[in-house]
Sequence to fold (686 residues):
Amino acid sequence: MNQFLLHGGDYNPEQWLDMPEILETDIERFLEAKINTVTLGVFSWAKLEPREGDYDFEWLSGIIDRLYENGIGVILATPSGARPHWLAQKYPEVLRVNEMGMRARFGGRHNHCLTSPVYREKVRRINGRLAERFGHHPAVKMWHISNELGGSCHCGLCQEAFRRWLKDRYGTIENLNDRWCTTFWSHTYDSFEQVEAPSRLGESALMGLNLDWRRFVSDQTMDFVEEEIRAIRDAGADQPAAVNMMYRFEGLDYAKLAQKVDMVSWDSYPVWHREKEWDTARDTAFWHDVIRGLKRKPFLLMESCPSSTNWQSVSKLKKPGMLSAASLQSIAHGSEGALYFQMRQSRGASEKFHGAVIDHYGGNDTRTFREVCGVGEELNHLSELAGCATRADAAIIYDWDNIWAMKDSQGPRNKGLHYEECVDKSYRALRRLGLNVDVVDQSASLDRYRFVAAPMQYLFHPGFEERIRSFVEEGGTFVMTYWSDVVDENDRCFLGGRPFGLTDVFGLRAEEIDGLYDGEENTVIPVQALSSGSRQLANMKEQYTCRYLCELVKPLGAQILMEYGRDFYAGEPAVLCNSYGKGLACYICADTEQSFYDDLYENLVREAGIICGWNGKIPEGVEVTSRENEEYVYWFIQNYNRAEVEIEIPEGDVILGDREGILKSFGSLVIRTKKTDGKGEHKNEI
Ligand code: GAL
Ligand code: ZN
Fold:
């Protein structure tokens, strides 16, 4: 791990080789802005191998040396994100085929057949050459594998690989038929040879097939990544390898992909200044936490925009201070640095108006450049945070298989399940209490948490219910919502009542689910007749609205906290809690509004004895996040309001920002507090 936080980003000097003076000023600018890391080689293939087998690394070597002389490190990319013309011309098999059977022409990027032996071979070779040449260069700190991997190919090679993948998984065609429920509509397969990738022209209604195709695409991409990394390792390079991931990307199972690389990173392009900044900040924070949760380790903000992108529907500039707030937010949530796309704005083609550290004018007196310098200063001040961990008592389950299966199924609301909002509500309710939150998939061990929320976990992986049971048994608080534990890993409905295998833990059985029309509402209200020994929920309102989905359940011992206010199920349970073992299992039946989650979670978190170690009051629009090492906890307090706020400053050293107690709009404060026991234990843990 570095002793400092990374600052820098994507740099494409190959676009400026005929203007050496530009490259010289760039380095001056980098030094001025305290840039310590640049990413080279993303999309440089045509310059690195202009003709098949004819490698030209001289220009790259010169630049890496110059950077190194100036104390700037390099993240070196493998060039497989975009291919040169000669490759597609000579080997058309590298071009993807779509689900309609049409092969793409040359163009674009991120669009290769990842099964193609030719593509793999060409990538392996150039990676090997790059690693031989630069794998021991002291400037090269990390490998950036390809770029923003995603998408699928339906060519013959991929279809063949898919069938092999299925054979490995299911062994016999009878087993596959059983798993995919192919008797339905007489879609039974006679042999693996009949299986084709899902297509609108053909089979699209077998959910088991659709789900396995997505898994295959994900696995095939991971296999490609592994092969890329192997090529580098075989050539003797041993720097960590990373992939850059995308915001809310569902195309690959990131939780699995993360296991193939040393470090995960992502590219963050929030749409600032459209909604309240606070909303955008929480949304971004959520994805930081998803990415950190993949390995439960620090990650890297690989790309972010210093001003405005050119691909969003409106290119909104970041207002003064927002670049600092967004960069520091990533650090607060576990990033090891703040990197940009890109260092110098390209002169032509599709990204010429994308924001960059150095623009077409090229001077150091632009607003953006000055703000980048400011971030450079700030990261410098915070260098002791490098490698710090995030400790979270609360977790939210977010699982790719679940998302794939749930969104693909027909019903209970084809107009939108509002899944993302459902997850966000749990996330926001926890974050407003100042709690760090890990976002993890179903395979993560739950032992380290005390509070876990599982919003809309429609698909359950084998064994997940057992882990929930023991988590609750051991004293954890587990909250699950409607439309959970409905199907198995092949999207086959569980028989015999749901939540499957957990009706005793939750003390209820889910029976029916009502889809509500857009604009239709119901309410949840505290139960009228509190029985003796009832759980008292403080601060709960008289009623909360709910929309979209209302599940009807039959209580089997759980305590009913809230009931429906309207419709034929008025008076029936809407929120239930069941004591099980030493813990508590709660079930939310309906898509309730945010304030319901806020109030309920405040109660549950307090009952579970979880507190945020930050004792000050958290004003609206302020984000409190922490990282820690053996000795210290570092508190980030960030104001996402458009006006300044007053905050109570706790004991501790202010290492960034001032002690005045006034936090300006988009301002950040970082406070270091010493742990009292010094043993790496959270000092405020109960
Ligand atoms: C990213 C991509 C970069 C650049 C950037 C522009 O998704 O990885 O290469 O295109 O977007 O915002
Ligand atoms: Zn293919």
Notes: Residues 113, 115-116, 153, 155, 157-158 surround zinc ion (ligand 2) (CB under 6 Å).
